[in-house]
Amino acid sequence: MERGKFVNRVNFVLQSHEAVTLNKFIIRYDISGSDTRGYNEYTLRVDEVTQWLEYASAKKVPILELNFSPKYDESLSYPGLTCAFPHKFLTRSTSVDFKPLKALTLKFIDVNDEAIEFFLLNCPLLEELIVHESKELSNVEVCGSSLVLKRLEICYCRNLKLVRVSAPNLVSLTVQELEELILENVPMLVELSLPWGFGEISGEKLCDAISCCNLQLEVLTLKVLQNPKKGIELCEFPEMPRLKKLVVGYRAMNEESVDLLPYLISAAPYIHEFVLNLHSSCISTLKSITRFPHKQIKVVKFHGYSGHKIRIDLVSYFLENFVNLEKLIIDPRTFFFREQIPRISSVSIQTARSRANEELAAEIPDRVELVII
């Protein structure tokens, strides 16, 4: 839908709403549009976003979401596709009041470091902060002994250099596309999701960050973007004795990065669930990979299983090394790192499921339940 039509429809609804307060204020708009015309016809203007922020402030909303994500992942083709954030609006100290705010989501909108600082300082009840696809973030500090923040996500902000976090109540942290993460005073942090690879956090800095919370972590997600093996050899990956779930995602698996699997699994001796997310592979088969028997893993989920030889080899590896495995869950759909995914017909999905069942059913021992989703 073109910007003008969408804005008019939203504003009409807002003007018609007579309640003094709102429990939620959520606007979701496909910034990419639906055809090949100029993107200026779809990009929201600063004054339009300002008007919605004014409305949210006046209605004292506890949950605010401005989500301008493309419906399908247009950001891969148009990396600069974002809306401007009205930073001057936040300087109106007499009219801006976000004190009731508990959850804030901003996606595909160019919020900057100062705006993040504003919301942290002026929203004493803020428990959830999610920011995706901002070109203006560079050095983000989420620090304060009085913060009640429990969930923090800062993802796909292409100019982000550093995130520093000191938040005593933080439970879940997800960061993507950055060079350095510094964690201090995060005693409640049990869920951590990090990138790893070329242009991302180095192996040494990754280990340093995890070492700040390795004894308490319960869920760890690592998204491997390129070959990070060279960097990780320089440091010792910290053991995670309380980890229950390990998620490893590969954008492009190669001979070096596949060796990370036993390396990571050996650092988590008590995990119950292992998840592998595989978008693509640069190798056709597993030539050699360190064997590492693991007695505690009961459930394996494999997203991105396509039936290629490398995928079948990985399943065999799981069956051979996870000696007490009880359930193997196979998702044959192509795995995407981003939220936005292209259209996939139901016929293609059903075909992929049938093929996966034919390939694997005879290979799975009776002790393991095979589930194809």
TrEMBL record:
Write one Pfam family the protein is assigned to.
LRR_At1g61320_AtMIF1
Spell out the InterPro entries in the cross-references.
At1g61320/At1g61330-like, LRR_At1g61320_AtMIF1, LRR_dom_sf
Give residue ranges for domain At1g61320/AtMIF1 LRR.
97-340
- Highest taxon, organism lineage: Eukaryota
Database matches in PANTHER family: FBD DOMAIN-CONTAINING PROTEIN (PTHR34145:SF68), OS02G0105600 PROTEIN (PTHR34145)
Q: What is this protein called?
A: At1g61320/AtMIF1 LRR domain-containing protein
Q: Provide the taxonomic classification.
A: Eukaryota, Viridiplantae, Streptophyta, Embryophyta, Tracheophyta
